[in-house]
Amino acid sequence: MYTGAIPQHDVETTRRTFSSLGLSPAILDSIRSIGFEHPTEIQSLAIRPALAGDDLIGLAQTGSGKTAAFALPMAQRLTHGRGLRGLILCPTREIALQTKAFLDLFGQDHKLRSVCVIGGVKMGPQIQRLRQDPDIVVATPGRLFDHMERRNVSLRRVRMLVIDEADHMLDLGFLPQIRRILEAIPERRQTLMFSATMPPPIERLAQRFMKEPVRIDVLPAGRAAEGISHRLYMVQPEDRTACLLELLQQETGSTLIFIRRKIDAEWLCKQLEPAGMQVERIHSNLSQGQRVAALQGLRSGEHRILIATDIAARGIDIPVIEHIINFTLPEKVEDYIHRAGRTARGTADGLVSSIATWQDLPRIREIEKTIEKELPRCVVPGIEPYVERKKTIKGRKLLRRRLL
Ligand code: AMP
Fold first, then answer.
1. Can you give the three-state secondary structure of 329-353, one letter per residue?
2. Ligand 1 atom nearest to CA at 69
3. Best of 28, 36, 44, 92 to mutate for ligand 1, by most ligand atoms within 8 A of CB?
4. Cα–ligand 1 centroid distance for 11 (angstroms)
5. Using one digit for the tens of pLDDT, what is the confidence trace for 54-65?
6. How far apart are CA 51 and CA 305, in angstroms?
7. CA 69 to CA 125: how far, in whole Å?
8. What is the tally of helices (H) and strands (E) in the chain?
9. Distance (Å, rounded) from C-alpha 94 to C-alpha 115?
10. Which of 52-66, 208-222, 241-255 is the least confident region?
11. How far is the CA of 45 from the centre of ligand 1 (A)?
């Protein structure tokens, strides 16, 4: 059984078979070696058109198996030694590294060489690897763009392009760079784009840069992973930290705490350490080495708590995470869903607790509308809950809501 860098955990699969999707015997062998028995929904729908060379828009959330949905066809369609033919754009360094692990495995038969071009690490070694005749580049847009400007890489032979988590790249402000990158790639190419949402700028990108794409939507109803229990703790602003400490004591499993700003992640880490918590943090001011170590530490159980900014909200696949705590609610509803998606990966169960104050009420209503359920109000011992006054939709009168 394969024990390499590909994360392993239960994920919901279909009853179809990989061999019915047009994949080569060598690729089917690699699939078996990592223990994938049946394709997931997105794999079963995307692999055939991707192998046929069609452009494709896949509406799929992280954790639905989409990395293999594009890595398998790419590994089968490209062969080594014809120049840089494949380009995969990812929003975060961690997703890029995970994607490269898939390509290293599935590309063995065609001797494919892939290079990761990500920020936060030195340019020198990347330049060297870019000179060693890679077939595929897996990149975050910012760093790839730097290399393009310095003429370290040419995209003029790229034939297959994947844009992964397109909506998230938009949030991170990569859109201008993505446009410039797309303009540097020949028009005669195949483009596969994946996204969990389809906001207008992404739609426009799709219309301008894709040719009659096949559209595949495997987003679940409610658009948040199943198996997740949500809890909401309404508190006074000054009680946030006390509430968090109590929650960390109640739930003793592996926990990912989300916070909006890097500076606050550092601050919170310093609040928790004296309380004897094994805690680390991850955000974009840390070096790539520190970020990988922080994730690895959570995976291996070296620390049980990781504090993260939204940079870690998507794509990170750590099956052990049992509890997500939103120390601050995210700006956007999509980010609530993506943060929540870091637990209950595949078919596991998970818990998402959010700490909020009265100022968050409009955002809470928006989240509830999107996930089509009310976030159950909960309390922790010793902390006076904030009691909401809520307008009923029909009666338009103010009600005092009982806290659970
Ligand atoms: P992804 O959405 O690509 O990040 O994949 C989520 C997780 O599902 C990863 O741990 C993959 O290794 C796993 N996975 C993907 N496809 C399958 C499959 N067909 N059978 C079992 N596990 C899978």
1. CCCCHHHHHHHHCCCCCCCCCEEEE
2. 3
3. 36
4. 6
5. 999 998 887 889
6. 41
7. 29
8. 14, 16
9. 14
10. 208-222
11. 15
Q: Which class for 118: exposed (0-12), middle (13-18), buried (19 or more C-beta within 10 A)?
A: buried
Distance CA 39, CA 14 (A): 6
Model pLDDT for residues 175-187, shown as the tens digit of each residue: 889 999 999 999 9
Mutation to probe ligand 1, out of 18, 28, 40 (largest number of atoms < 8 A from CB)? 40
| Listed ranges 105-119, 241-255, 296-310; the one with the highest mean pLDDT | 105-119
Phi and psi dihedrals of 159, rounded to 5? -120, -15
Q: How many residues does the chain have?
A: 404
Task: Give the C-alpha separation, 40 to 65, whole Å.
Answer: 6
pTM: 0.64
Q: Quick check: CB of 6 below 6 Å from ligand 1?
A: yes
Atom of ligand 1 nearest to the CA of 315: 4
CA distance linking residue 166 with residue 199, whole number of Å:
10
Distance from C-alpha of 66 to C-alpha of 57, rounded to nearest angstrom: 12
CA of 39, closest atom in ligand 1: 19
The predicted model gives 59-88 an average pLDDT of 94
Single-letter amino acid, residue 18:
F
DSSP 8-state symbol, 201: H
Task: For residue 314, name the pLDDT band (cuts at 50, 70, 90).
Answer: low
206: enclosing H helix or E strand: helix 200-209
Contact 343, 370 (CB under 8 A): no
With bands split at pLDDT 50, 70 and 90, how would you rate the model's confidence at 402? very low
Q: Do 320 and 302 contact (CB within 8 A), yes or no?
A: no
Is residue 67 lining ligand 1, measured as CB closer than 6 Å? yes
